[in-house]
Design brief:
Number of strands: 12
CATH superfamily of the largest domain: Nitrogenase molybdenum iron protein domain
Number of helices: 13
Radius of gyration: 20 Å
Shape: globular
CATH architecture of the largest domain: 3-Layer(aba) Sandwich
Distance between the termini: 58 Å
CATH topology of the largest domain: Rossmann fold
Structural class: alpha/beta
CATH class of the largest domain: Alpha Beta
Helix content: 25-40%
């Protein structure tokens, strides 16, 4: 049987495909697909209309302006994809800001006369939706057994965390900040992962999109732990804008700050992408929340303690 050709317009889907052992079937990627490192050699099939290196508030303003004028903040490299002639294009139908959407691809594909490409759109809202997405992709791509093995290995790692924490009923309150200006708290799968990792998530709900929030709401909750993990940002990129938090009213009075429990994580690599590395994120959360009992070795690479 001929090898199927796949274009992934979603970083998490690219990671899933590679984890299923199908990296050789990838023929194109989105501009954001960067893991594993070797996928960067693939042709780029999309671009963003905003400047990603700008300040958080400037990025937000650009996105709002683009969406007020147009339907999408991404462009699809139509000619590149047509020349690749993929059997499958994988995208998402969860967030028009996070990645190329199903509507974007469907619109572009109307110009492809006689094209037999099959579209797969993922739409996860929580951690177990991600496992279902792995199963879905594995089924479409004919590697059901590999999908089952991958899911079982991920579930075993989660069960290990749950087992180690079952004797620790006291859960510190945790707020996960997903954008700095305007401020957003991480929703979707993050509250569920905080709970699994031994914390009590606040100001966001499992399976619900990340909400914008007033700083006063965080001050009122006075969390035990603050985890800063802006969408698409590395730790170094977040540090460039950390003053946005340090200069806020009552920052120094918060329990998390006074007790030296403020952390920065690599949101781009771990928390923002609905792929296999979300289980890494559970382990990161577990060693942040319960450092005396759990250590998976992510400190310094996946997260750091911030001392203001």
């Amino acid at each position: 049987m001929d090898k199927k050709k796949i274009v992934s317009l979603l970083p998490s889907a690219t990671e899933i495909i590679c984890a299923l052992g199908l990296q050789d079937s990838l023929v194109g990627r989105s501009h954001e697909c960067d893991y594993p490192e070797s996928v960067k050699e693939l042709p780029i099939c999309s671009n963003a209309k905003f400047v990603s290196g700008n300040h958080s508030n400037a990025i937000n303003q650009q996105v709002k302006q683009i969406l007020s004028d147009e339907l999408s903040i991404y462009t699809i490299n139509n000619e590149v994809i047509k020349n690749l002639n993929p059997d499958f294009i994988i995208t998402q139908n969860q967030c028009n800001v996070c990645a190329v959407s199903l509507n974007d691809v469907e619109t572009e594909m109307q110009t492809w006369a006689g094209n037999q490409t099959q579209l797969i759109a993922l739409s996860p809202n929580n951690l177990y939706d991600v496992f279902n997405d792995i199963k879905t992709l594995a089924t479409y791509l004919g590697v059901e057994n590999e999908g089952q093995v991958l899911i079982e290995s991920l579930e075993e790692r989660i069960d290990l965390v749950k087992h180690k924490l079952k004797f620790f009923p006291d859960k510190p309150t945790v707020v996960c900040i997903e954008w700095l200006s305007p401020m957003m708290v991480a929703g979707n799968w993050v509250p569920q992962m905080v709970d699994i990792a031994g914390g009590k998530p606040i100001l966001a709900e499992n399976g619900i999109h990340s909400p914008f929030i007033n700083w006063e709401a965080i001050v009122a909750q006075n969390p035990d732990i603050i985890l800063i993990m802006p969408c698409g940002f590395t730790i170094a990129r977040t540090l460039q804008e950390i003053d946005l938090l340090l200069t806020l009213p009552d920052w120094s009075t918060l329990n998390a700050v006074k007790n030296n429990r403020v952390y920065i994580a690599d949101g781009n690599a771990y928390f923002n992408r609905s792929g296999p590395r979300l289980v890494d994120s559970v382990e990161i959360l577990a060693e942040i929340i319960n450092p005396k009992y759990l250590n998976f070795g992510y400190e310094g690479q996946g997260w750091i303690k911030f001392e203001s």
